[in-house]
Amino acid sequence: MGFEAVRFEGSTGRTRVRDVVRDVVAEVAAEEMPLVVGLARFDDATVIRRLGDRRRREPLGFGLGEVAALVTPVVWLAVNQTAQQITAAAVDNAIGRARSRLRVLFRRPAETVTVPPLTREQLADVRNVVLEMAAQRGLEEERATVIADAVVARLVLAEREDPGPADLPGADGIEA
């Protein structure tokens, strides 16, 4: 099975953070695809916890321990951070807390983190976050710029290509 054949569980109408990561890493750092594939088996919260702890000395769970200068954590953490901030701004915190409690109560897995359509200003913010994280993790400025541009391009293309819920098979109640 090639890396391009890996599929992530989906949501509709919004772009999943893990899909952005997969596409950007495939474009700018294909050698890291085994890391992306390995992380794909975890829920988003676990991935963020594993990638975000820079003091972590134990392996990620599938043989890669040191991720400081890799592209994958920069992209995943930056896009996730942006998605969380936008979602938090759009949704009342009380509703979000209630959903989290209900999810725990009914033992449902955490929702997949998605990125809504972004404005130009938000896309510029995403680019800046990627550049900042890349610098913090020791990536060269030129490499960071390539990564940031690839993330923004992927997010822009997602808005044009991702079908809305009405365009998906089964949206009208008929299974494809």
Task: Describe, in plain words, how this protein is organized in 3D.
The chain has 176 residues and is an all-alpha fold. It contains seven helices and two strands; from the N terminus they run βαααααβαα. A two-stranded antiparallel sheet has the order 1-2. The radius of gyration is 17 Å and the shape is globular. The N terminus and C terminus are likely disordered.
- Average predicted local confidence, pLDDT: 75
Stretches with pLDDT under 50, minimum 5 residues: 1-12, 57-68, 162-176
Strand content: under 5%
Q: Gyration radius, to the nearest Å?
A: 17 Å
- The ordered string of helix (H) and strand (E) elements is EHHHHHEHH
Give the % helix: 55-70%
Topology:
Layout: E1 15-16, H1 17-28, H2 33-39, H3 44-52, H4 71-90, H5 93-105, E2 114-115, H6 120-136, H7 141-161
Antiparallel strand pairs: 1-2
List keywords for this structure.
176 residues, mainly alpha, two-stranded antiparallel ribbon, 7 helices, 2% strand, disordered C terminus
Overview in brief:
The chain is mainly alpha-helical and 176 residues long.
